[in-house]
Write a structure and sequence with these properties.
Layout: E1 11-14, E2 17-21, E3 28-35, E4 38-45, H1 52-77, H2 83-107, H3 110-129, H4 135-138, H5 149-166, H6 172-191, H7 208-230
Helix pairs in contact: 1-2, 1-6, 2-5, 3-7, 5-6
Length: about 230
């Protein structure tokens, strides 16, 4: 397979299930849902999954991309007279980001939280085994995951706060150097799992139903990826 690891953005948590984006069959993916205690898996086009969650995700990253571009341009151009606007903008962005993650966690139902925990357990298992796990195997893996939305969010929030601190460095060149050095460090801290501890200390643990859902969806996704490889 072209990529033997599941990464951030490969799986979308939808209202009553999960959608696994295909890496080789562009535009398609495996959807697994649960309705009235019946698990259904199907291979569908990605266009059918244009949910509100997708649009919010796009706006979220577009927002932070604009933040970093504006901040770097401000530092390079040396607009010291307007630096306080940048600091205020970064602080607002930081609070908005933290509030967004708090809002999402509070609006999730227990069923969605269990499914999300099962998803992260399956990701850890797949990335280790290089294949979909079975029920006995998946129980050996933790729900703490370095590509969870919490870990990614912590990295983004710390990057914004770091940019805020860099705005106090008088020389723009040094500010950019410090920022460029620290960003990869934050990335590797997340990869090492340091930010995993920001996930809930008392998670809603998944039941056999959520684990079966994730495994069935992951298995369908994996089989379609292998078909392309054999051809």
């Amino acid at each position: 397979m072209r990529k033997n690891k599941l990464r951030f953005g490969d799986i979308l948590l939808v209202e009553n299930g999960l959608f696994f984006y295909s890496k080789r069959h562009k535009g398609y993916g495996a959807l697994v849902t649960e309705t009235q205690n019946e698990i259904t898996t199907q291979w569908i086009a990605k266009t059918q999954m244009k949910t509100k969650q997708n649009r919010l995700k796009f706006l979220f990253y577009a927002f932070y991309f604009c933040i970093f571009v504006c901040a770097i341009l401000t530092q390079i151009s040396g607009l010291n007279a307007k630096i306080h606007y940048l600091r205020g903008f970064l602080l607002v962005a930081l609070f908005v980001s933290i509030g967004r993650f708090k809002f999402v966690s509070r609006t999730q139902t227990d069923s969605q939280q269990r499914l999300e925990a099962a998803m992260y357990m399956a990701i850890n298992a797949f990335n280790d085994l290089k294949r979909p796990p079975n029920i006995p195997e998946i129980h050996f893996y933790s729900w703490f995951c370095n590509i969870s939305t919490t870990s990614i969010g912590c990295q983004l929030n710390m990057s914004i706060f770091l940019l805020f601190l860099c705005s106090f460095i008088s020389k723009p060149f040094y500010a950019i150097i410090v920022f460029e050095i620290m960003i990869p460090i934050l990335y590797f801290l997340r990869i090492l799992g340091i930010f995993n501890y920001f996930q809930k200390s008392s998670p809603v643990l998944p039941t056999e139903k959520e684990l079966n859902m994730v495994i069935q969806g992951l298995t369908m996704w994996y089989e379609h990826e292998k078909k392309e490889q054999k051809n």
